[in-house]
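[audit] Reproducing an earlier prediction to check determinism. Same input, same settings, fresh worker. If the tokens differ from the archived copy the diff job will pick it up downstream; this log only records the rerun itself.
[audit] input (848 residues):
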Amino acid sequence: MMLDLASFGDDKFHAKSWVNAACKARHPDDSLDKYLGDLEIKLQLMAENIAASLEEQSAQALLRVPRASRDVFRVRDDALSLRSTVSAVLQKLQQAEGTSAESVAALARVDAVKQRMEAAHETLQDAAGLAKLSASVEDVFASGNLPQAAETLAQMRRCLAVVGEVPEFANVKRQLEGLEDRLEGMVQPRLADALTQRKVESTQGLRDILITIGRYKSLEQHYTRVRMRPLKRLWEEFEAVKVGIPLAKPAATDNSVGGDRRPATMPNSANGSTTSFAEWLPHYYDEVLLVLEQELKWCMVAFPEDYKLLVPRLLIETMGSIFASFVTRIDTFTTEATAASRALVGGGGATGEVNVRHSTLGLLIGLHNVAQAFSKNVLHLLFTIDVAELARVIEAIFQPFEGCKQRYGELERIQLSGEVSALDLRGAVSRGFGQRGVELSETVRRMEASIPEVIIALEAAVERCISFTGGVEAESLLLTLDEIVLQYLASLFDILKSLRSICGVDLLLDFMGSGDSSNLKKDGGLLEGAVKKEGTGTAFDVVPEEEEWTIVQGALQLLTVAEGLSSRSAVFEASLRATLSRLGTSLQPSRVLTSSTLSFPLITSEKEDLDDTFAGPMGLDISILRLFSTPEKAKRLSSLFEQQAKDPQFHALPHTSQRVAAFTDAVNDLVYEVLMSKVRAKLADMAREAVWNQQEEQNLFSLPNFSAYASEYITSIGEYLLTLPQQLLPLAGSGNPEGVEEGSDDAQYFATEWMFKVAEGATAAYTEQIRGIQALSERGAQQLSADIEYLCNVLNALSMSTPPVLHTFHVCVSTPRNKLFEVVEQDGIDNATFRLVCKMRQVKLESA
């Protein structure tokens, strides 16, 4: 039996548990007493072995203690000895350092003296050499060896730089500058001849001479002046083409450098017909691109180190030299083309199409697109050129259009104003009896049709702004759009004002205010057919009966105009905000403001597609370049885009939204007045009718002598109100709110809303007329009671409750005069109305 001593060393050792575990581990055939005895003996023997081993090891440890103590003392003595030795060494080093510092300082002074002596020696040599070169330079020039002369002058320049501002050599400096100018003058004609004839070796040699004497600018100027001549001749060819002089057609050439281009052909007809500037400009750009391609190939051989600066400089200087002429030709072309367009329109041309395609702004965008295509081809051709140089090239290409871009807001305003002014919003039907309803319907139809036309024109303006200015002139665009929409709304307001007279609303309101029937005779026969009816319920029929519903239907269609204008303007403004968000992402004016230098994507291969580079954020886009050159505009754009992004209440067209809401309110007012016109006409002089103060007639049979039926004026109003829902519901479904179908909940709500509004207005107008009755006899009270009861029944049929004031009038006039004081105790009686009725019926309030 093996014993595991590890369990005895465990902190959680328990004797009973260990014994029980040992008993369980015995073989079942072994006797328990014998097993426990053997286990006891083994434990005792093992304990004795452990005790003996411990005693032996303890004795050995006691023997090693003195020896370890002696070793510790010896190590301590060695450490003290080492410390004293190191201290002595440090003292010696400190003494040596002081002595060495003085020696090193003395050596440094000696070295400085040596260096100054050597510099003086070299300066003396250079001075002697400069004097020698100054004396022999004329011989070098006389030999005609220009490279040697350049090297001599360069050596003189180096020697003069070493000598410094020594008064004795001041004349040599002036001599050197004169000699350099002289050498440059000798190089110029040879360089011009070499550049003209494309002599590579001669050009390279003359270039080295100029570089040697530090006249690289002269090389750049001569190259630009010589190689610009064919490009300027191409520009001057337009004058010949414009007057119809046939020119030799150049051979077709494959000009597809970085992109597909058409063969360069002159756009001049065989019979010598004139060519416009817009037709000729693409040909000019093709020819310029061909020349640039040839120049790039030749310069890469002749000037392998300078072609990246020379070729862009050539195009920049060329565009600068023709800038004034380019601007003049643009102005002349746009002026002549717009004049021809106006003449064509006057001759019966297609007005809308001609105006859009041949307006000043449209023509400028066409020319700008041609220049943009040319700039993309230039980017493909010069893809290895430094990005900063490419940026200057792009700016030079678009510089002739800069003045027009700055006037974009004015140009856009002129175009949009012309398009809006050209809209024919008034009906063409002559005004007369029986034709006012037709005129109203035609005018409303034209107003409704003009809304999508205006929105399309505004959307086209947004596209023009992006196409022409890249969105940089977004501020001018918003101001222009807001102004044009206000102009359009002003015309709608004017028409709406004129429609009031067509509908007879203003004339009726004037009559209602004055009570003078002569007012009905205004406006040159507008009220032909108006009839004054005598008797109970006298009213002025302002609109002939046969035209009533025609005018009502036409007026209701105005709601379609207001709804369409409101919804379309809201959708357009939402799209305008989305456009501003996209422009903020693409232009990033805030990044332009924080960037000290241009940051463009690098172009690494000729096969790379440059479209993203041209139009991407911070790419070679003329719009980005314009923002870099005009930080104030970038700051304003950044503020605009930030406000649009952060302010949920931001309105791109702030005045438009207010005026559209005002127009909607004006339409609702007019429709309401039209729907109320029949009611107002029937109630025109109701309060002044004689029936209200008519006395009862005596008869033998005591029969009632008042009418048991409602008066004609109130029955006419009731029939009108009951007929109104049938007129409103089809109109609501046919076109008022867009997308509303007849019979839908929205259509039903529309009809119900306006029906309630008219019924409430009619009730209020009727109540006001009742208040105007001066005296009320018993017979008049009974008649008024019958009239009010009829109107209450109509309101109940329309699912409307009777207003408390009208209910009070009905109760008070239907109650006998001697029992009137009992009414005041009833519920729902308006006290002020009760007092008024008492006054009408000559009932003293004290008795009541």
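[audit] rerun output stored. Observation attached for the diff report: The chain is about 70% helix and 0% strand.
[audit] end
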